[in-house]
Amino acid sequence: MGCNSCSTGKDGQPRGCRNNGTCGSDGCNKLTVFDWLSNMSLPAGQQQFDGVEVRFKNSRKEFFRNTEKLSLSIGDVVATQAKSGHDIGIVTLTGELVRVQMKKKKVTADDEALPKIYRKATQRDIDKWQKCRNQEEEIKKRSREMAIILKLEMKISDVEFQGDGSKATFYYTAEDRVDFRQLIKDMAKAFGIRIEMRQIGYRQEAQRLGGIGSCGRELCCSTWLTDFRSVSTAAARYQQLSLNPQKLAGQCGKLKCCLNYELDVYLEALKDFPAQDCKLSTQKGLAFCQKTDIFKETLWFSYKDDPSNWHALTKDQVKDILAKNREKIKIASLEEYAAENVRDDELIFENAVGQDSLTRFDRPKHRNKRNKRRKNKNKNKKTTARNA
Q1: Is the residue at 163 inside a domain?
Q2: How far is it, in rounded angstroms, from Cα 171 to Cα 371?
Q3: Distance, CA of 318 to CA of 337 (rounded, Å)
Q4: Which residues touch 356 (CB under 8 Å, ≥6 apart)?
Q5: Does residue 104 lie within any of the structural domains?
Q6: pTM given for the model
Q7: Strand, coil or helix: 270
Q8: Which are the contacts of 157, defined by CB distance < 8 A and separation ≥ 6?
Q9: Are residues 102 and 13 in the same domain?
């Protein structure tokens, strides 16, 4: 969902607000919450909740108290309390829904330690805030060069300025612990601001930077995914996927989040299937399960002495054999059951859509002219014969 500035321009071309999620209507951000209570009035005698949700750069959101009882609405730029100085953010939610969001984020609604909103941002505050944001890319580039000179094994992925320009937070990723004390001294001397280093994971880095996934769409973590569930290789095993790290890993280098999307459906379907490690006792020997196809409800078994030959059995057939094995009854062989599943279906291809031949344009055009000439000669011969 985009803001009004993101609508199409002339000739149907996308215009784009170019604010990277900081537009006034707050419709470009994945953390946007629809205020369905905006057109409802409070019961008589009840005061509006003084909590306000404010969004800063990227996915950072915090809750504040509106102690000054300012008239705030979604999209207002406000000056908020910070550890030192003040910060500039955009109001994303007001009223009773803030209480619900605080409960969801496990923040106490009656906490008196919540920071406050000072005032609505003036034009001077906004100009200074925009100036600081325009410097972030250049400062990020210079800080990376400093880290390379100091031979630090870390990657600075993003920089976020405080609204008053007195402090900058550098987000970085690293494999091991990094001693960046000298780096902080050099950056504080070069930029003339207070420096805060904050380490993030590789998935959080991909969320901040964004990109295009192997599916051709934007990364889920940077567009709509708000929480990171742990992804394990068991999710790939349940879905019968080959454990190829090049295909299962995303841009962050970790397992793709989309492996969890259909996992619950697979687990629900596997509840009705025999166990993967089940064994079938036959007169020809013991048989082990080699493969399971959830969609076709088919399991492939092979004998212990002949593991290369697989026999396809349906789910119900396997349950029937297991029930007989519990009664200490051995079936003759797997081939008897597998023979029932063999179908001699003839593949018949029909031109149901009615397409023309693909080689219709390859035919030479001069054949039609020759045919016409032959027809004309035959007509002339017939007319001369009649006249004679």
Answers
A1: yes
A2: 78
A3: 9
A4: none
A5: yes
A6: 0.69
A7: helix
A8: 171, 172, 173, 200, 205, 208, 209
A9: yes
